[in-house]
Amino acid sequence: MSIVKRRWFKALIILGVLAAGVFGGGILYFRWKFPYGPSHCCDKCLMFALDQYAEDHGGNYPAGEASPEASLSLLYPRYEPTGEILRGKTVPLEVVQPILERGGRLGPDTCGWHYVEGLRLDDDPRLALCWDKARLGHNGQRTADGGTAVLFVKLGYEYIPGSKWNEFLAEQEKLLAEHNEKKLARPNP
């Protein structure tokens, strides 16, 4: 083999190894950035579905099922016809769709949303209604700061940064306790 051919051969091997490294690194980065794959289980679409449900049900958001996730399933099929949004960003549609189609309800392991059951449209708008359990970004990606979007009563929407997450949870615990005390103090009609 001539010197020129050997140099070309070495150059091709080096380029092949570099290309494989870049490709492999890209795949690893993508898998890290999107731990459950890319997803557009749009929290804003969920927010509008929840609001419409409440409007149609005397101001009550979905409630009364075996778990908050099961109550969220009440949006199917009228307010969320495919199950795509109800699955959240962590559960495959192939898992959720058959459950909903046979009239079943989602549970903690088949729904990626943390849903706060028992709220109404006329409750304190500082009360959080729903957020992504895995705290992912809008398209299913890890966020730079570990935060996520939160849906609030009355179509409220806010991004809570990871640095403020514990503070947010503590405030929600306090607000929910106050809400439940007021609810217990109300006379039954």
3D structure, described in words:
The protein is of the alpha+beta class. The chain has one domain (43-185). 42% of the residues lie in helices and 10% in strands. The chain has helices at residues 3-33, 43-56, 68-72, 93-101, 165-185; strands at 113-115, 128-132, 148-152, 156-160. Strands 1-2-3-4 form a four-stranded antiparallel sheet, with helices on both faces. The longest helix is centred in the N-terminal third of the chain and has 31 residues, at 3-33. It starts with a helix and ends with a helix. The mean pLDDT is 86.
Question: What is the secondary structure topology, with strand pairs?
Answer:
Layout: H1 3-33, H2 43-56, H3 68-72, H4 93-101, E1 113-115, E2 128-132, E3 148-152, E4 156-160, H5 165-185
Antiparallel strand pairs: 1-2, 2-3, 3-4
Strand content: 5-15%
- How would the global form be characterised? elongated
> What structural class do the secondary elements suggest?
alpha+beta
**Alpha-carbon distance between the termini?**
95 Å
Tally of separate helices: 5
Rg (C-alpha, Å): 23 Å
Order of helices and strands: HHHHEEEEH
Uncertain regions spanning at least 5 consecutive residues: none
Number of strands: 4
The profile of the biggest β sheet is: 4 strands, antiparallel
How many structural domains are formed by the residues? Answer: 1
The helix content is 40-55%
Strand order, main sheet: write it out: 1-2-3-4
